[in-house]
Amino acid sequence: LVCLVLLGMCIAATQIATGRTNKVVRGLWADVFLSITVSSMVIAFIVVEGIIHADPWYNAMQLVPISGMILGNTLAAADRLFASMDSRANEIYMMVALGATPREAAFPSIKAAVGAGMTPLLAQLSAAGIVQIPGMMSGQILAGADPVIAAKYQIVVLLMISAATTLSVVIICFLAYKKRFSVEGFYLSPALRDDA
Fold first, then answer.
1. 4: buried, middle or exposed (CB in 10 Å: 19+, 13-18, 0-12)?
2. What is the pLDDT of residue 18?
3. Which of 107, 90, 108 is nearest to 187 (CA)?
4. Residue 3: exposed, middle, or buried by beta-carbon count in 10 A (0-12, 13-18, 19+)?
5. How far apart are CA 8 and CA 187, in angstroms?
6. I need a surface site. Which of 18, 27, 34, 183 has the fewest CB within 10 A?
7. Which value, in Å, is the radius of gyration of the alpha carbons in the chain?
8. What is the DSSP string of 114-181?
9. Alpha carbon of 179 to those of 49, 85, 106, 143: distances in Å?
10. CA separation, residue 124 to residues 118, 152, 159 (Å)
């Protein structure tokens, strides 16, 4: 039952994430689902088993809320990736014509999309505890918990969200760039794409 709940959460998160990117390119649902599910579940299981030591590891009281926190913050950077690739279309045509593989031609755009996907996360991490007191920590302090313990839990939450977001952005970028290339490795002009 816990696995079914997690699967439902991953499907809902994928639907929300692909709602924006479907306007850019079709066929991303499976890639976004894979990136969100793998990144979120790997980090959630590491936190539940390695830090919280839930017994059993699939205890819904720990696994579902932690997975929800991670899924709610996991981003899909495919729209940024495709915008960057479209702005570099002539450069990509030239690189492919000179023998570059699709991955080599798309790599500057992948790098830019990963950087853009990490920017809000880095801003949040730099402000946490100094400019703002995040939700979990402030909730525990208001409930009367020791501020040091509340801060430790908040650090775990921020690190697990940042790890899952980083992993998700990297996976989706390395899966999605192929949608702009043909099977033979040629960059597809707008007339040949299966865009919405």
1. exposed
2. 81
3. 90
4. exposed
5. 35
6. 183
7. 19
8. HHHHHHHHHHHHHHBTTTB--HHHHHHHHTT--HHHHHHHHHHHHHHHHHHHHHHHHHHHHHHGGGGB
9. 36, 11, 11, 49
10. 10, 17, 11
**Which residue's entry shows tokens 């439902």?**
8
Kind and range of the H or E run holding 84 = helix 78-87
Under a CB-based contact definition with an 8 Å cutoff, are residues 158 and 150 in contact?
Answer: no
The amino acid at residue 42 is V
Q: How far apart are CA 88 and CA 113, in angstroms?
A: 13
pLDDT(196) > 60: no
Q: Let me know: does 89 contact 108? Beta carbons within 8 Å.
A: no
* Residue listed under structure tokens 């590891």: 57
Amino acid identity at 111: K
Instruction: Please list, in sequence order, all residues whose beta carbon lies within 8 angstroms of the beta carbon of residue 94, skipping any fewer than 6 positions away.
Output: none
Q: What is the pLDDT of residues 2-28, one digit of tens each?
A: 999 999 999 998 888 887 665 557 778
| pTM (two decimals) | 0.81
